[in-house]
Records
---
Amino acid sequence: MSTDSISTHRAGMESIPLVAKLHEWVITVDHKRLGILYILYSLVFLVIGGIEAMIMRIQLIRPHNNFVSPDVFNRMFTMHGTTMIFFVVMPMLFGFANYLIPLMIGARDMAFPRLNAFSFWLTAFGGILLYFSFLGANGLYGAGNAPDVGWFAYAPLTSQTFSVGHSTDFWTLSLLVSGFGSIGTAINIIATILCMRCPGMTLGRMPLLAWLNLVMAVLVILAVSPLSAAQIMLLVDRYLGGHFFDTQAGGSAVIWMHFFWIFGHPEVYVLVIPAFAFASEIIPVFSRKAIFGYPAMVAATVCIAFIAMSVWAHHMFTVGMNSNANTFFVLTTMAIAVPTGIKIFNWLATMWGGKIHFKTPMLFSIGFLFQFLIAGLTGVMLSAAPFTWHLGNSYFVVAHFHYVLAGAILFTTFGAFYYWFPKMSGKMYNETLGKLHFWLFVIGFHLTFDFMHIPGILGMPRRIYTYEPGRGWDTWNMIVTIGVFFQAAAILVFVANLLWSYFHGEIAGSDPWDGWTLEWSTSSPPPAYNFATIPEVRSRRPLWDRKHPEDPDWKYE
Amino acid sequence: MRNRGFTNWRRRFAAQVIGLLCLPVAALAAPEDRSLSPTNIFAPVSTPAHSIVELSLFVLAVTAIIFVIVFSLLVYCVVKFGKRADDDGREPPQVYGSNQVELAWTVIPVLIIVVLFMATARVIASIQKAAQPHNAIQVIAIGHQFWWEYRYPGLKVVTANELHVPVNDPAHPSPTFLTLLSADTDHSFWVPRLAGKTDLIPNHPNTMWFDPQQTGLYLGQCAQYCGTQHAKMLLRVYVQSRQEFDRWIEEQSRPAHASAAVSEGQRIFETTACINCHAVTGTVADGRFGPDLTHLMSRETIASGAAPNTPENLRLWIQNPEAIKPGSKMPAMGLSDHELDAVTAYLETLR
């Protein structure tokens, strides 16, 4: 009966039966274990979502291809988007937040450990429910009954008239369930950060990761609620005789779009802000300098969150809003570029004058900076509504948001994996395999997503299972598909590295990176109680103060 | 770790990245060539499309400059500030911030945004608030799963899938103003060389316009996922001279030809389920669920562009639509070979 760390477990491995160990993981309320469960869960779905992408790209490698039927393809893009957002990136980020926040603020656990466990299992169940849809109707032949309405499930395509059967209900119910899990985690993060910081750690002294996850958690609560409301209204339409979105009965398709995008836009900031958090922790340590402009980084993030609540209809530039509405959303969307750009400049300024160690976490962070710059700039292009009148719903937009999701978020998340793997497992990962993962993924990512902009410019819309030859899209689609195989190889290397290093890696010690935040002051992996004595801090970098008593940060802050 | 090779590695990395970047930039510059694609947004032939291209090039120029500056700074950091092999292990000077620098890089982006915003607002107004001139061609476009219905209310023409409009004469402007409706789910009308896309949303009428300055056939397709065969809901817009357009209108407004030679096919058509969905003016067929077939043979394609309009394809479409457009709403009609030949012969007379 123990919630001890993995390493002490290994010593007494023979004495604890496997069933008992698994049972401990199932009933755990320890934030570190729940964090690891979230992360492993999301890794499994990353592979599944990647396979769905591969199926689509193989179908699109040439025009009029016959790899899968239109029905299967339409289910693939729906499941790929839904999986990647709700069951890969969100749980991955919640997992890291869960693991790191108490350690970084000097607490013993999250504020509500049982709510924490409950939220994880809700999310996990939601994903399983969604994938159960493959087994319905025709079974595994013809991709079963999986939803095929697109990840944003526009009305009235989702009504009983146009979506016969239960595929849409799998989408609705699984996200409703996991949405409550997300809200639980968000409440937990906010309470933990506001109430459980160690003595001396004012809000102005807590690590940027804590600040950014606080902002993310507020956005989750603001964003998930309208989505859940809309999903309940959809269920009322489909089963209880409602007509909210039933256009044949006077309902509104556009109101679904408003509800969805009031969720959908803050959602993408929910996804990217924790990615910023990873970069804000990794770049300083590997440049050997404090983050440049901490107060501006906090202020910029809070600004981004505020403005993010006001830009949603830039996803609706083509639905026929009047020119005043379109112009308003152009203004707010362009405005959000300012605090976002400021953050990029701050990271660059952190590197400037530093001594950069090009280890795998830093390589991924540099890739992130390059790719996020491009993603932000294509976003500025798209913020000009007339440009979106052409390129909205085209492969240009698909390229843009994959640049953010894969090029920025996934890159910093890989960096986070390598950076905190030693802390979580007690072992160092293999640096050569890490670099191989990085380069393979860079090549694959750029082959796919750089060239994907071009078919969009040449008129190729998204969500089409095939396309006409003679539109000039053929070669570009082929290059895009080839890149996918490099990315797949990179993921294989990544998983192999994690497994190999877990079993055979060198012992990492408590502070392999010479870091400055509190998680590095305890053992790797930390004991169940995190810290023997609750630390007391006087600055933003308590370990810097300890290591440099002659020149501590608190003299300068 | 690595020593002298390390510095070379960083320089080579920077060079490779710059090389990689040139590819998409070169590709972006190339699209001025119309033959690259018939749906290239950078080959506009109509005023809204031209305005969007001009704005895009301006925004692209601004963002390209920002990219070059910030990217150069990133490359400089990576090349100049790497840990040297002969590093003494001391930490570099810790710089926590700089009010002047941070103010500068806040104010300058705000100014850039103001400029971009004003340029954009002008284009939005010029397209969305354009007045409809007296001679505008009025068309009602109704989106269906998975085909396009076009009605010219003033000219009393109903057709499907292939839109005909007159080329614009600057002396007597005759732009085409489309009212966009939908019979079922959301669709979107996107013919890149003519205009940006506007959605067709049920219970939410929209309008758009274009004034093509060159005759020709312009391609596009539905750009809002509408169900199984969204991919083959293609658009064909024929921009014709005024005389040709008037002649087309005149032909389209006539009722269907009658011919005794195909009376058997006509009888089968009119006594089976065909007339539940299809209309042929001047006969009992007045179904509205599917495309109007009165002048079917005046179109170059069938099934909204999915196949060329040949007798073989027409026959195959009636026999087994799944072979051409699986998931379309046209059912396999279950006719015998003889009946198929007769019906196809009848349809072939609907010029």
---
Amino acid sequence: MQLPVDYILHLADTALVLGHRNSEWCGHGPVLEQDIAITNISLDLIGQARHFYQYAATLLGDGYSEDRLAYFRSAAEFKNLTLAELPKEDWAHTILRQFYISSYQSLLFSYLKQEKDEQVAAIAEKCLKEITYHLRWSSEWVIRLGDGTEESKLRIEKAAANLHPYLAEIFFPAFYEQFLAEADRQEIKKQWLARANEIFEEAGLLFPGIGNSNGYAGKTGQHTVYLEQLLTEMQVLPRTYPDAVW
Amino acid sequence: MVNAPYIPPADIWDILKNIPDPEIPVISITDLGIVRDVQTGGGRIVITITPTYSGCPAHEVIMQTIRMELLAHGYTNMEIKQALFPAWTTDWMTNDGKEKLRRFGIAPPNPVQQFCHQGLFAADETVQCPRCGSFSTKKISEFGSTACKALYQCTDCQEPFDYFKCH
């Protein structure tokens, strides 16, 4: 059984947008090793996005390709989590967002690898191996910052406050997510909360919970202005020179 | 319709065995374990390969190189397929490939069963220094110069080295 194309695009868009955001650290990481780490994670995410776009393109049929899906859709057509499109800000914001999304991907993909949609199951299983590294790396960094210096603690607390309004959307199902049984959705949410609480506690921080939605719904195309800016930069070359090959 | 000449799969494997990995040219793509299948029915060659990491830029180069090499050997009727499942694991790397890595100065991957899925801040995997053979080494970073490697340093000979992480 094939999952909705919109859902596959949602998975692809979240991975691409987050991968692109993280790539902005290239050459700006706090130390060389971590610069390499975050750009490696970008590479994995963009690779994951490509798996999903390629699959979506075959489902959509004639004229569709991964490049067309990535470069020739406008912000309103993107279905990524709003959380993924927010500016990278400082290291604490980037780390915490990565932790939230890796933790979610880890649980969701463990579920999707048992899906009847064989291609989605295969992509999920492949990606899980990479996500395991992302989750471990970002969890360790949340703890390191929370349990580090006064400055690092202040920064991660500020990141937690700023990202908090965007967490509700993760678990609020969009119209194309109805295939996921309510019980499974609740189970994923429960385990996600447990992991967040565990890591925050170890970091000496208080997890603020997920609260109510702030109305942003990137999953259904209602984005912040930040996505528009990201896409303008990311799409400028193929849109200016549609015949360019690379 | 003319009967297509029989192509022994072993001939194709021999060609693939000599295609180096573009990032780590001391090992071949068959040493890496990414060539999953070779079919040669009806004069058509169908090769199935699997990516190592999702975003590995070497993957496209490898697909292109396979095509070029087969053309150079006179084969024109071919298809190169990508299979994501079952997902690639370093356990598919040949022993010969691991030995070539070690001699090149990259510590080969440990077996997946024993070492993957560590917890947070877990004791680092025991990785043997590819230069002096010491087991007294430490992890510098989980991510290295390519998606498939981590950075380590030997605390005996002090040499920093790449570790091809188990996956």
